[in-house]
Amino acid sequence: MRIAAFPKGYLDQMVIRRTKTVFEWIDEAKVLGVDGLELHTGFLWSSEDDYVARVGDALRNGGFEMPMMCASPDFTHPDADARSREWDRQALYMRMTAALGGPGATCRVLSGQAHPEVCVEQGVEWAAEAINSLLPLAAELDITLALENHYKASTWTYPEFAQRPEVFSAILERIPERARFGVQFDPSNALVAGVDAADFLETVIDRVVTMQASDRYVEAGSSLEDLRQADGTIGYSTALKHGVIGRGLNDYDRIFRVLASAGYDGWISIEDGVNGIDEMIDSAQFLRTARDRWFGGSTAVRVRNHEQAKAAVPGRNV
Fold first, then answer.
1. Beta bridge pairs of residue 109
2. Full residue range of the structural domain in which residue 238 is found
3. What is the tens place of the pLDDT at every residue in 220-273?
4. pLDDT score of 299
5. Does the residue 318 lie in any domain?
6. How many structural domains are present in the chain?
7. How many CB atoms are located within 10 Å of the residue 118 CB?
8. What residues contact residue 116 under an 8 Å CB cut-off, 6+ apart?
9. Alpha carbons 106 and 147: distance in angstroms, whole number
10. Most Cβ neighbours (<10 Å): which of 195, 216, 231, 289?
């Protein structure tokens, strides 16, 4: 198991307002002592080859791999032309994934938004058709597409079409490919969908290729049941807070037990930073400890990461 990081707390700065560059994030991430950085397509402010090459150079110079690209196609859009444009954008992002991550990198794929006028059966058909049609390109580029159990992209109007597990599973069933397609598991998104993360993981473990790790807790005076909506989901209530991995509502001991029992040896990416970089540092340490306990972590990687973190944050007890 290898550890990456994704700065969810910087999405507004890096994707929406564009006040923080990917180069600044790469430099800042050196304090984490992780092996790789998961990128978001919105972090890349140009698709020109020389710009992408500069990002790749910055990653390598920082000592990072780029194992995962976070893309958000809307394959359930009711307009056929819009779906076609989404397909073209996803293909572009797949090529950028290959350029930055090389063979074996994964590019996230989503079903799309839960557009009110699109019924479940139609949305499942459109999403599966689009993903299946992208698989030859994934094979050509030597990368893997990973369908995430998602909640809602930052630029979307509606939540994820396949947020509910039964819809997610229906799409998976229509995509039999396993060499170039799998699942990106997000425990907190399972929680937001109103289900137990470990229970959900057990239903998809044979197809998991990457994982995003974060944690949530409910502020004092509230409970998950208080937040549950009419369809059984939780949503991103203001009472549901971000926190250090391993200190919240997700049962990470059970999650890691399921992963380890299945022989999982892929990437786990920290998806957080909402409350600052210090929480990401603590989350990285939690995952290193979990790697040692559950996955037989590499001594060389542990030593290198520990020394990087100490050097980057003088005086911090890492």
1. 147
2. 2-312
3. 766 777 667 777 787 777 777 889 999 999 999 999 999 999 999 999 999 988
4. 38
5. no
6. 1
7. 18
8. 158
9. 10
10. 216
Q: What pLDDT does 297 receive?
A: 62
Q: Which amino acid is at 45?
A: W
Q: What's the CA dihedral at 39, 313, 35, 264 to 10 degrees?
A: -100
pLDDT tens string 8-50: 999 999 999 999 999 999 999 999 999 999 999 999 999 999 9
- The string over 11-27, giving b where at least 16 C-beta atoms fall within 10 Å of a residue's C-beta and e elsewhere, is beebbeeeebebeebbe
Q: Would you say residue 304 lies in a domain?
A: yes
- The answer to whether residue 100 is domain-embedded is yes
What does the DSSP assignment read for 215-281?
Answer: EEEEPTT--HHHH--TTS-----TTEEEE-TTSSSS-HHHHHHHHHHTT--SEEEEEE-TT-HHHHH
Tell me, what CATH number does 286's domain have? 3.20.20.150
Backbone phi and psi for residue 144, each to the nearest 5 degrees, phi listed first: -125, 140
